[in-house]
Amino acid sequence: MELNIVNISGEDTGKKVTLNDSIFKVEPNDHAIYLDVKQYLANKRQGTHKSKERSDIAGSTRKIKRQKGTGTARAGSIKSPLFRGGGRIFGPKPRDYSFKLNKKVKQLARKSALSYKAIDSNIKVLEDFNFEAPRTKEFVGLRNNLDVANKKVLLVLSEQNKNIYLSSRNLQDVKVVTVSDLATYDIMNASVILFVENSIESLHKMFRI
């Protein structure tokens, strides 16, 4: 699969790049994508939720009324969940939501997600570029030149670039990542993926191709 390389002005540079079919043209596996996205979202959960059960409530342990003769149910503690101000029954407790996922499944999920984007022609390759200083206005101009101003954009770099990252940080629908941090969730969440030219080679190395 070949794509034309464009510059930040949106003009064709006359160069082409070959995208490996074993990454961008596999048969998508929806279940692998589901599992990888599920793990990504689960790992982001803090799991610090906590409600007070009856043993955590501050209150007297005095028996609030006599056992028999009142005509109502027996009650032994004001901290009972049946009373206002009492503890909660089976409330949430702090827990770790993360779970293990095999590397090959995660790799298949990323390939499947990239293949979906390739099928829909939502992948573009940019000529290597850099900003002299962090300026959001320049990144806005880049989006306008590439006709992706009103779309969710994922820009993939081969390595971290502070100026590009800071230029895009204030834009709500833009995310900048390196190849090593490329996640299935980010790929599926984006409308358009912009690969910088030298990131394609890094992507092939990551998948050991």
- The H-level CATH homologous superfamily of the largest domain, spelled out, is Ribosomal protein L4/L1
DSSP strand (E) fraction? Answer: 5-15%
Distance between the termini: 15 Å
- Pattern of helices and strands: EEHHHEHEHEHEH
Written overview of the protein:
The structure is a single chain. The protein has 209 residues and is α/β, with parallel strands linked by helices. It has two domains: 2-29 and 102-206, Ribosomal protein L4/L1 (Ribosomal Protein L4, Chain: A), CATH 3.40.1370.10; 46-96, no CATH class. It is 33% helix and 15% strand. The protein has seven helices and six strands. The chain has helices at residues 21-24, 30-44, 103-119, 136-145, 162-168, 184-189, 197-206, and strands at residues 2-6, 12-18, 123-126, 153-157, 174-178, 192-196. A six-stranded mixed β-sheet has the order 2-1-3-6-4-5. Strand 1 and strand 2 form a beta hairpin. 21% of the residues are buried. The mean pLDDT is 92.
Structure summary:
With 209 residues, this protein is of the alpha/beta class.
Topology:
Blueprint: E1 2-6, E2 12-18, H1 21-24, H2 30-44, H3 103-119, E3 123-126, H4 136-145, E4 153-157, H5 162-168, E5 174-178, H6 184-189, E6 192-196, H7 197-206
Parallel strand pairs: 1-3, 3-6, 4-5, 4-6
Antiparallel strand pairs: 1-2
Helix pairs in contact: 2-3, 4-5
